[in-house]
Amino acid sequence: MTSLPIWLLALVLPTLAHEHHDELTEEQSSAPIDAILWLHICVQALVWGVLFPTGMVLGLSRSRWHVPLQSVGFLLTIGGYILGHSHGGRAFLAGVHGTMANIMLIPIALQLALGIYLKLHIQERTLRPYAVVAHGIVGKAYPVIGWTQMLFGAITVRGYCRGGHLGQCLAHYIMGSGFIAYGIIIAILLLVGETWIRRSGRSPEWWDSWVIMLWGIVNTFTEHHGSGWSVKDMQHTILGVLWWTGGALGIFLSRNNQRSVVPSLIIILTGWAMSEHAQALMISTKVHSTFGHTLMLAGVARIVEVCFIVPKYTPLEEGDGHSEHTLAEGKDEGSTAASAGRAFRHLPSFLLVCAGLLFMSATDEELDYVHDKGMDHVTYILIMFSVAFLLYTLVVVLINLYSTSGRNDASAVKEHAIELTTPTSKWYAPVPAADEGEAEPMHVIGDED
């Protein structure tokens, strides 16, 4: 088992000599993508987009399927790496995708080594606790690493983001990915994170406001370059000012576990600004407008969720009356209002994912290509919404998998646990504590009556 990493490196290292091109002929850049490269794309998309995130979720839930699935993922990704350096057909300029592929060997080897070490169950009280933490951190980073590398791959295939287009690519891809991550985090908090929110004593808007404020500070001082101020420079810079000023207000209003509509208002104003963003091509104007309106709708949906669906998260209190295993009467989770609320709370998350994908797909190079192919904005926008449906489906499936696998599996709990986790009757309820002033005199055994 310990020779496995060495064996994998022996397979991988020869591929590092794969030739990368600094200049390409017209024939090399326009050659068709061959079957080997298509296989590389499909394998790596499957591994980093589905298998590794699924394995991460199974690891979080302590499922016995975590190790087998991750092992298959490691083998497939090494195979995909070799395929990526063995293809013919179209050639590509040296770029960030190839560099990132080599860098990714570090977390792959590290995670593999940590996994093998943890399976040995040695040094339980010394090194193993630190290895567990490191294994968890690296594993949770895999979806971000995979998303980044797949994005780099798409950029490489099309030859985008070179020369003067780099700044726009960074703005669109980072901000778009940020909106997608925001939507996914909200979905996680909706489905499995409410207990964590209540335990932290901080409302979601408190965390949102901090991120918005810090991002706004960075954006304020990085959007303008040179001496002259263009219209876009002014728009982007004032958006940064909007974010840090609004974020500061949101932090103050969200203190003491209070919910706030300020982050939603910032989202709405940002969406309005983007919908009015003047563009050179009509299709670009339409895509930016739809992105802005989608973002505004997400902000409105979030306001409804904050004000009417879950206006407050009650902090968890210590004591038997708040135990998850107390068989006391609970809230009627099957009520119509509760079900409607849970359904509605998916809307802001999904719309944020849609907005993020629309913004990522709205660079000049992408829309020039779409325009040259004769595609109209309706078709292009609906393609992006279709991708958003697919991505959000994957997200909620993984969240549901966490809730129903490993230690969270209801059948496993019923089989091994002493107490039921779902309150189904009034067999037991804690005795309410009497007020100090109303307490009856205590009788001590042995005292005279």
Q: Can you give a write-up of this model?
A:
This protein has 449 residues and is mainly α. The protein has two domains: 31-159; 164-313 and 344-407, no CATH class. It has 18 helices and no strands. The protein has helices at residues 4-12, 26-30, 35-60, 66-84, 96-103, 105-120, 128-158, 166-191, 194-200, 204-220, 231-253, 262-275, 282-309, 336-344, 346-360, 364-372, 377-404, 410-416. Helix 5 (96-103) runs antiparallel to helix 7. It is globular. The model is unreliable at 1-17, 319-333 and 419-429 (pLDDT under 50). Residues 146-402 form the Protein YTP1-like C-terminal domain.
N-to-C SSE string, H for helix and E for strand: HHHHHHHHHHHHHHHHHH
Stretches where pLDDT is under 50 for at least 5 consecutive residues are: 1-17, 319-333, 419-429
Q: What is the molecular shape? A: globular
The number of distinct β-strands equals 0
Radius of gyration (CA) equals 27 Å
